[in-house]
Structure prediction request, 564 residues.
Amino acid sequence: MRAVRGSYREAWASVTGNRNLRLAQSSSLLAWTGEFLFLSAMTVYAFDEDGAAGVGLVGFLRVLPATVALPWLGALADRVSRRRLLVVACALRAVTAAGAAAAAAQPAAVYTLLTLSTVCHAAYRPVLAALFPTLCTTPEELTGVNAVRAVLDGAAALVGPLAAAALIAAYDPAIAFAAVALLAGAAGLLAAGLRYESPRPVAADGPPDRSGVVADVVEGLRELRRRGRALEVIGLGGAQCLVRGALTVLAVVVAVQLTDLGRPGVGVLWAAFGVGGLAAAMASIGAAGSARLGTLFGAGIALWGVPIVLVGLLTGSPVAVGAFVVIGAANALVDVTGFTLLQRLVPDQTLARVLALTEAVFSLTVALGSLAVPFVLSALGDTGALLAIGGILPVAVMARWAALRAIDADIGVRRDRIVLLRRVGMFRLLSVPVIESLAQRLGRTRVPAQTDVFRQGDPGDGFYVIESGRVAVLDDGQEIRQLGPGDAFGEIALLRAVPRTATVRALEDTELATLSGPQFVSAVTGSSAPSSAAERVVSDHLADDQQRHAEPPRTDPDGAPDPH
Prediction:
């Protein structure tokens, strides 16, 4: 419990103490409060104008156009500034929502503007999620930031509908649309204040990519095929979204037909879902230091389904409310671990389009789940439908448990490598995408005692970090320093493009982690802070060498030059 509280404090401190994260999370809170307000106001407006058919129409208009647009918006986010895209999306959201408020007397115009407004907001979450790794310096910080975002999303899910209810009761949906416009504009202003350096791909080879957006979308699909572990996460997440879509219908069945909660009970069940999600989002901050994100993700997926099965077996209002609390908690756990896994498993240069494709898949599966439920209810009845639909997720997790454990093993290896790399001063300020990329590319070599790693005058072709053992640095055969575990060498020749300025010899059997020259150079020169740190290290070493060579030779007591 102490560790969880410590992780909780650290996660909030990382957000409040980091200007960029503070702005990004505040922008997200306003944008998502506006989204939940928007959803409530939009359905009320549609019901007032066209009844249940209008609600169904806006539900369709929320899903399909945004789903079609997401892959293209994601590809665009990998090509242009993600900060700029957030600002533009918020600005367009504000304009379209304000237009809907002004055109409230013309339903066709309002529906068109509401559809455009939804498309504008669709890019917000995947683009922000793709931006978060760049604003963080450790994977643990990234997990904590995702957990804080989930807490703020939970708060937005409570505040947004309440604000909509108050505005609609006092005025009408048009005023609620105007409030959405104000929130979107404020979210865009906060996003405009972000200041960061976009990471360059490590050791990028070949000419700059000049392909079009269509090619970028295709490349996003290919990236998914190459990233089997990310596909595991998306596949299970898609199954969870299928069940989530079904639950939107099943919640009505449970409240009205299987319990005595009645029609108002639908709101009670979803409120219980929100309470569980908010509590679990806070608790999930304790997962920030965990290397078992894969199995935690799987546990959250399974916990989505088990309570639905229990509701089918043990009918009753208390059971139903408790089940929705657990489902909400599971949803928060899936949200935090799932996004963190994708952010860590997919390279930064294709991350936005992969996250956008993921959002598109999730939107479609939610829609399919809600469409399929009437057929399942007709075939199996209320209880049978709950058992069948709830059982999908535990079975899916059991089938993919070995793959989830393999993800944990991969992340565990990366964590050990990142810890080693972070011991090198010039690497401490690298963003998460860059340090993850280096960790994946890290090689290993064993050097026997009294063997040279390289010799003075050799061409510089690699950078080395000592995992175990000790080495001596020799200048013209004279030992000038010794290095041990966590120390690094080889940077001078790489950053100055000169031959090796010294010989490095293993004093005992030594294990070295290795990076190629291009990988090292592109990592440390890709942003200003690591570049400055590396330059200071090189300058200090060269200054020491110049001072040593400027000193007169030592002499023995008789005045003869010291032969050593």
Observations:
- Confidence is low (pLDDT under 50) at residues 1-6, 203-210, 554-564.
- Residues 159 and 513 are 50 Å apart (CA to CA).
- Strands lie at 443-447, 452-454, 462-468, 471-475, 478-483, 488-489, 503-506, 510-516.
- The longest strand covers residues 462-468.
